[in-house]
Amino acid sequence: EANFESFLANCVNPRERKYTFVNDFCIALVCEHKGDKNAINKTYKEFIKNWKTNAEAMTELAFSLNYLCWFCYENTQFPQYQKFSPVFSDLYYKSISEAEKSLTKDEYLAMMIALD
Fold it and tell me: What are the angstrom distances between the C-alpha of 107 and each of 10, 17, 26, 56, 96?
């Protein structure tokens, strides 16, 4: 949590964490690693269902997915989680696509600027 909050604070456009996306995805990651197939995708689908028209939430969701992609990729302490990096990468791009469809043009552009 502290690492993600530091990540958000040190972005080009700093922001405060408002949602539990990273925590929820970490729980799903552990569940999937222990055999609950598609726990990460199920978590993502639930978030999209509930938050896809909320620009602030969609921006933080994309930040969370990007952060987790790199966290898993670079994780040498728990190498068993490295295989989940592509899963989070795919969901990151899906979230951007969903935001483009669900948000207003101005909200989507603000999201893309924040993610840059």
Answer: 22, 18, 27, 9, 12
